[in-house]
Amino acid sequence: MYLPPHDPHVDDPMRFKPLFRIHLMERKSATVECMYGHKGPHNGHIQIVKKDEFSTKCNQTDHHRMSGGRQEEFRTWLREEWGRTLEDIFHEHMQELILMKFIYTSQYDNCLTYRRIYLPPSSPDDLLNPGLFKGTYGSHGLEIVMLSFHGKKAKGTKITGDPNIPAGQQTVEIDLAHPIQLPDIENLRNFNELSRIVLEVQEQVRREQQQQEEEEGQDEEEGRSRQGDSQQAEPPAQGDDAGAEGTEAAGAAAAQESAPNSQPFVLPVGVISRNEDYPRTCRMCFYGTGLIAGHGFTSPERTPGIFILFDDDRFGFIWLELKSFSLYSRIKVSFQNAEAPSREAFDEMLKNIQSMTT
After folding, report:
1. Cβ atoms within 10 Å of 344's Cβ, excluding its own
2. Residue 247 pLDDT greater than 50, yes or no
């Protein structure tokens, strides 16, 4: 298991923790050992469920328990997971979330199911290399997000989740067709000014979507009226659709070329950040939306925000409604055999992991 670094140090390396091991024996037999807990390896079991999925089960769960009971287990888990004690955490809401996570995860430490995930395919036109990133999520601590590119959109999908937004959900979506020009550094400190700029772009996006829906409706009406017409219609010129997409892609590319290599960046006053050590220059910004919800993924909604590209390995997202900033840093672990066999296989995997939590 790869654990994120201790909150809020997103640039620190991941932490490695073995969960089980398999001893291959003669005659195609094997023994399985569970590595969870603090009493050493003990008897376990592995079952192949179906293609790209397997389960592990611990047969000696008493090895997971500690002599000091649940309090000692919680204190030990807190040191490992957060690198601190409960006394160090003064925020009452954060204490509640941490305790909730401990109760939830400790319920399932004896039986786990694993499903294969693919790393996102890359293209020379991508804004930055896609992949896995560590991100700050307020009182929830650090979480893992997969950044992938889909034409004029970029998506951040949660690989690890929390009581509000579970793993598999699309935490942020970036609209690469709508770059945002930041104001000068003094005006950038004013949250209302940044909010005004982002909300203007949101309204522009809404109008464009409405216009597109109306045009598609007209096309459907015209298509139905032409049904049964014996006259052969001239086929549309090849590349019409591609031309439209190409125009948008060209617009994003032009924005990238016209933008300065770097510009000063500072968080607006009143925006909360777990990590004050964020970059003070950025390359580009785009309009985006972030997913927020109540506990248990209740009343989920997409809210406006701004995506900030700092460099090849770091980006940020300002959640306007929450007045909160998330900083993301690339995971630089080399995972073997994690490439998707095709773009279609990757898209299908994304759809599957999202459906598990909805």
Report:
1. 9
2. no
Q: What is the token pair recorded at 311?
A: 């460099």
HEC letters along the chain: CEECCCCCCCCCCCEECCCEEEEECCCCCEEEEECCCCCCCEEEEEEEEECCEEEEEECCHHHHCCCCHHHHHHHHHHHHHHCCCHHHCCCHHHHHHHHHHHHHHHHCCCEEEEECCCECCCCCCCCCCCEEEEEECHHHCEEEEEEEEECCEEEEEECCCCCCCCCCCEEEEEEEEEECCCCCHHHHCCHHHHHHHHHHHHHHHHHHHHHHHHHHHHHHHHHHHHCCCCCCCCCCCCCHHHHHHHHHHHHHHHHHHHCCCCEECCCCCCCEECCCCCCCEECEEEEEEEEEEECCCEEEEEEEEEEEEEECCEEEEEECCCCEEEEEEECCCCCCCCECCCHHHHHHHHHHHHHCCC
Distance of CA 1 to the CA centre of its chain: 18
The gap from C-alpha 99 to its chain's centroid, in whole angstroms, comes to 23
d(CA 249, CA 247): 5
Name the residue among 20, 272, 49, 301 with its Cα closest to residue 170: 301
Amino acid identity for residue 281 in this structure: T
**Higher-scoring residue by pLDDT: 329, 164:** 329
Residues constituting the chain: 358
Task: Please confirm whether the linkage preceding 8 is cis (ω < 30° from 0).
Answer: yes
Say what the pTM is: 0.84
pLDDT in tens, 44-96: 999 988 888 999 999 998 888 888 888 888 888 888 887 877 777 766 777 88
The strand pairing partners of 318, in sequence order, are: 306, 325
Write the pLDDT tens digit of every residue in 148-184. Answer: 999 999 999 999 988 889 999 999 999 999 999 999 9
Q: Dihedral (C-alpha) 184, 185, 186, 191: value to the nearest 10 degrees?
A: 90
